């Protein structure tokens, strides 16, 4: 699965770095059309997380994951076949659906096979994935120096082939045990109780709502920092890609060491307090970057990037552990699928939030960081109540598969 993560993210890095340029220069779409493709495919992708998780509770996980990888490969290859706007929109939406569903299923697989070591497994997986993103991005940057249509076509083909390779590697993976699926026998009839539904679990839905806010660090690096620097009179414009590289290097170097501080459910919950401080610091540093000259702007923007990267790493550990700990074993797929909605929804909400902060100015960035910091504190309290109820509940009895 680590090889799958590396191959998958390397291919995704190839396409993510050039997708806007491809639609603009190769297929000839307008800015509005490119924006619509991004918005619609992102909205369709939101459905991939809960549907993928629900299906994985009923069918063999590896088979579903292989199907999704094939869907992503076909969607990428299909983009090469047409310049028609409607078809490009449909193919992009299909790829986005497969991407979000595959992300949830990869997490579900890791949860089922890693057991009590799931936090460390997540950290290692995330490190490998970030290395893949960096490798794909560097390859795309090198290919773009050629600047031909053929170069764009090869990058998109490489993205599709990475999904094919991921599917072939998944074939070699054993099917993990699943408490959600049981085999009925004469001694063990089909259970009459219905599995828990995350849509009826108000506590879990409230937790997912707070997660949507905590995932906003993603929008800071993808939209917030580049736009803030681009509209700054003091910050060097070349600083934006350097801060992205800094973010990647920090995650690769520090994600695994930091994971040990959240190795248990209680420890992960405790990390919400330093996470709150990191978000607040990131917002204040962004605001202070507008108060001086080039040196001051560079210093505080770098400080903000470091703070938001630390927040990203801490939240990755906390989110992984708590989303699993709050989910009943018999409906892990459905619950993790609903949790995946938080990250998917952030892709639509995040750009709006950071652009609002930019439009408001330094005060907007201070409010941005403070809002996420307060949400961390609220989640700290919410999770405590949820975990208390989970501990008092009677664990469900399931029938093992043979």
Query: For the CA atoms, what is the radius of gyration?
Result: 21 Å
- Shape assignment: globular
What summary fits the major beta sheet?
A: none
Give the CA-CA distance, first to last residue.
24 Å
| Percent helix range | over 70%
Structural class: mainly alpha
Provide the residue-averaged pLDDT.
84
Poorly predicted segments: 182-186, 391-402
Number of helices: 15
SSE string: HHHHHHHHHHHHHHH
- Fraction of residues in β-strands: under 5%
How many strands? 0
Explained architecture:
Helix 1 packs parallel to helix 6, helix 5 packs across helix 14 (332-360) and helix 10 (239-259) runs parallel beside helix 13. The protein has 15 helices and no strands. The chain has helices at 2-16, 19-26, 31-56, 61-79, 85-114, 118-144, 149-171, 202-214, 217-230, 239-259, 265-270, 272-288, 294-325, 332-360, 362-392. It has 402 residues and is mainly alpha-helical. Helix content is 77%, strand content 0%.
């Amino acid at each position: 699965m680590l090889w799958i993560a590396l191959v998958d993210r390397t291919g995704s890095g190839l396409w993510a770095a050039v997708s806007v340029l491809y639609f603009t220069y190769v297929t000839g779409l307008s800015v509005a059309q490119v924006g619509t493709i991004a918005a619609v495919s992102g909205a369709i992708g939101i459905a991939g997380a809960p549907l993928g998780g629900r299906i994985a509770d009923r069918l063999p996980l590896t088979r579903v994951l292989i199907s999704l990888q094939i869907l992503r490969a076909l969607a990428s290859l299909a983009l090469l076949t047409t310049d028609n706007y409607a078809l490009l929109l449909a193919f992009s939406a299909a790829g986005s659906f497969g991407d979000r569903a595959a992300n949830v299923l990869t997490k579900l697989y890791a949860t089922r096979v890693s057991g009590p070591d799931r936090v460390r497994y997540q950290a290692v997986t995330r490190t490998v994935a970030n290395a893949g993103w960096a490798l794909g991005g560097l390859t795309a940057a090198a290919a773009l120096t050629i600047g031909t249509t053929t170069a764009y076509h090869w990058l998109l083909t490489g993205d599709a082939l990475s999904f094919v390779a991921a599917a072939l590697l998944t074939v070699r993976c054993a099917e993990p045990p699943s408490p959600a699926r049981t085999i009925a026998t004469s001694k063990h009839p089909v259970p009459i109780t219905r599995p828990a539904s995350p849509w009826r679990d108000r506590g879990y839905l409230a937790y997912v709502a707070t997660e949507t806010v905590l995932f906003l660090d993603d929008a800071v690096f993808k939209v917030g920092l580049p736009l803030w620097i681009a509209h700054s009179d003091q910050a060097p414009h070349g600083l934006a890609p350097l801060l992205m590289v800094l973010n990647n290097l920090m995650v690769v170097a520090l994600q695994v060491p930091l994971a040990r501080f959240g190795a248990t459910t209680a420890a992960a919950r405790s990390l919400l307090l330093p996470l709150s401080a990191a978000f607040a610091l990131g917002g204040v540093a962004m605001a202070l970057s507008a108060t001086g000259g080039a040196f001051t702007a560079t210093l505080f923007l770098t400080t903000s990037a470091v703070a938001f990267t630390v927040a990203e790493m801490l939240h990755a550990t906390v989110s992984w552990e708590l989303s699993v700990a709050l989910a009943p074993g018999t409906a892990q797929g459905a619950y993790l699928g609903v949790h995946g909605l938080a990250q998917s929804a952030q892709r639509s909400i995040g750009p709006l939030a950071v652009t609002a902060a930019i439009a408001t100015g330094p005060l907007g960035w201070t409010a941005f960081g403070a809002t996420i910091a307060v949400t961390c504190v609220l989640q700290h309290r919410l999770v405590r109540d949820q975990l208390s109820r989970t501990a008092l509940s009677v664990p469900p009895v399931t029938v093992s598969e043979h």
